[in-house]
Every structure is written in structure tokens, then in C-alpha cells.
Amino acid sequence: MKKILLTALAVLAAVVGSACGAGQDLAGDSAEGELVVVGMSQVGAESDWRVANSESMKAVFTEERGYRLLFEDARQKQENQITAIRRFIQQQVDYIVLMPISETGWDSVLQEAREAGIPVILVDRMVDVEDEGLYAAHIGSDFRREGQSAVDWMAEAYPDQWAPVRVVHIQGTLGSTAQLGRTAALEEAAAVHENWELLIQLDGDFTQAKAYEVMTEYLDRLPARGEIDVVYCENDNEAFGAIQALEERGYTCGRGGVDVITFDATRNALLDCMNGRISLAVECNPLLGPLVEEAIRTMESGGTPEKHRYVEERVFTQDRLTPDFVESRKY
Ligand code: AHR
Fold first, then answer.
1. Residue 70 — φ and ψ, nearest 5°?
2. What is the pTM of this model?
3. Chain centroid to CA 274: how far?
4. Is residue 312 one of the residues assigned to a domain?
5. Which atom of ligand 1 has the smallest separation from the CA of 284?
């Protein structure tokens, strides 16, 4: 494998680090003076979750710990991700880490990586490819299960099978695994519960600004004040945008008003949940850097990492939150 020679500074840092017993790092395991080169293509910085995810990666893949990280922000464009992967192949990196924006369109470029002998680790979302052998491992969330947690909560929160449950659905980036899984759960549950009415599906693209815009437009188009029971937002930033639009138009968010459901459960969303504005926050864990490193370590020592690794996630309602817990939230 191609590895880049450590700079004098990085050698010093690695030596000092191991002398101080400062955690295990790969520099200590691999041939002295070498860094493992990781090319990483991140979706962008569309949400608080995404920023936390990038920080988690950058904290793990440091020179002091034996890595050279080539981090590329695709600014929400799949073509930028494909260009970045081709650049990593030219640079002969040791590993490619890809957070794919959407599921389709990856076969050719992943084939190119395989021909170059570079293992690809998928993080967060999945790809829909003909051949599972095009990637070495996938580490992320089970988005369908997250959606299931949300609709299970709805079924309990609205036990009367005859009273209408009117739902506004703000979707995430269309075609992404997170959107597909969370949407599928809601659509399937709505098909089963005859009293659940999907009033509209809006594209919020996982951002606060877009969710605010589409929610505002929707509310302003209604001839009279809308009867809305639930706003199912596919991430926290969409929830913040939707809440702002609703509150500006006199709606109250929370139990007894409009139930806002969100995914991610970042600190600010937990704060809103603790204060009653968000009724349900389904956790989506962005702190995946250590798990990606584990997969790389396994491969560095000649092993095969788990093909699919899903992180454990919880759900939060107001009664389960305390100020100490919210304050200590890492993202
Ligand atoms: O793929 C994970 C999703 O992408 C998170 O829910 C969202 O916040 C992010 O942008």
C-alpha cells in the first residue's frame, strides 16, 4: 500500500504520544515513519448532524494518530463526490471513505476504486449497487428502524382509530438512504392507519432554510388556518425551520398543539424537546469516526470488517430528558 512519509513534526508527535501512553494509534502499529492515507468525501454541511459527523472523523484521522486525511466537502453535489473519488484514486490513497449523498449512480466510480485496489468504506448512508463487493464495509444508521420508532410513537400518541391524524411530511434529500428509510416507515404506517392523512409531502433537503421556505409557502397557501396534528420532519434542522414557520403563523408546537417529530436528536433539538416544542426526537448518531477507524484497523491487520454495522439509537420525549443530559450531549 502507498503510504506517505511522516513529516519530522508528525514523527515527533507520534513518538511523544506513545511515550506518554496517549491512547493507541496506528502509527505505532504500522511501519515507522508511515501514515495511512484516507480520502474522505463528505456530503456537505447541510445540518448540525453533518457538522458533528465531520468533526468526529477529523478528530480520529489525525497525523498524531497515524493518518493523513484528505477531506473533501462535496457541497451537496454527487458529481463533486465522484470527482473527489477519482482524485483519491489518482493520489493512490490507502482507503476511501464515502458518505454518499444518494443511493444510486455509484457503480462505475466504485468499480474504478476496486480496480485500483483501494477499499471503500461507506459511512452514514448506503449505495444501491449491483455488486456488494464494490465496498468493503458500511457503518451507519438503520434509517428504516428510526422511522419505525417515530410511527410507533404516533400510533401510541393517537390511539383513537376514528379521529383524523393530519400529517405534514417534510422530507430530506430525495433519494438518500435517510430520506428513503424515514419516508417508507411513514408511508407504510399511513397505509395501515386509515385515519392518518398525509396532507402534503414537502422537500426540505435536510436544511433549516429550505424547510422554513416550503412550510411557509404551504401554510400561506391554505385558505384558512390549517388543521395539522403532526409535522414529521426528517431531521432536526428541518424541524427548526418548520417550527419557526408555524409559530410565526400563530400555531403552538408540542403536545396539545402541532406535534413536531424530528430525527437526529442533536443538543438544540433535545432542548426544544425538553421544553415541549418538539414532541419526539429520534436519535441518529453522527459520532462514527471511531467505528470507521476500527474497520480500517481491521483491514490494516489483514482482517475483514463487518459488512454492515448499525449503531444503537434511542428516542427522546420530554419526560425522558433532564437539563444535565441535554447539556452533556456531545453534538
Ligand atoms: O444521513 C443522515 C442525515 O443526513 C441526518 O439525519 C441529517 O441531519 C443529515 O443531513
1. -105, 100
2. 0.91
3. 22
4. no
5. 6
Kindly state if the Cβ of 143 falls inside 6 Å of ligand 1.
no
State if residue 95 touches ligand 1 by the CB under 6 angstroms criterion.
no
Q: Answer whether 88 contacts ligand 1 (Cβ < 6 A).
A: no
Tell me the pLDDT tens digit for each residue of 58-106: 999 999 999 999 999 999 999 999 999 999 999 999 999 999 999 999 9
* Residue 264 and residue 151 share a domain: yes
Q: Kindly report the protein residue whose alpha carbon is nearest to atom 1 of ligand 1.
A: 178
For 161-206, the pLDDT digits (tens) are: 999 999 999 999 999 999 999 999 999 999 999 999 999 999 999 9
- For the Cβ of 284 lying below 6 angstroms from any atom of ligand 1, the answer is yes
- The domain of 173 spans 143-284+317-327
Gap between the Cα atoms of 152 and 140, Å rounded: 22
- Helix, strand, coil content of the chain in percent (nearest 5): 45, 20, 35
